[in-house]
Amino acid sequence: KFTFRMSPDFKPAVGIDSLKQVITYWRTGYPDFHLEIIEEVYCLGRIAVRWKITATNTGPGNFPPTGKKVHVQGMSLIHVEGGKLIDEWVFGNNLAWLTQLGYKLIPPTSEGS
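RE: above sequence
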């Protein structure tokens, strides 16, 4: 069965129904989600894809919608066996994504302060 994993936790979504749920989640939270392929490399049953996503956060998701647009680059590593896609590992810039939505990274306080 095809397995889809995405940063930061790489929790596997196994099978076509799970993949459909992942796609539905992203299309609901980001209805204008656009993926542009920048570069592809094929070698020995592996496909490396460098991509750019542009999307506006207008729908529900894990966080309240912000109405903000994000522009993020990342990569996917896809494994192929017998002419079939076996799995995909997605590595995105999660920090850039969240900061473009308006979230802040707050450094921890030191013990002395």
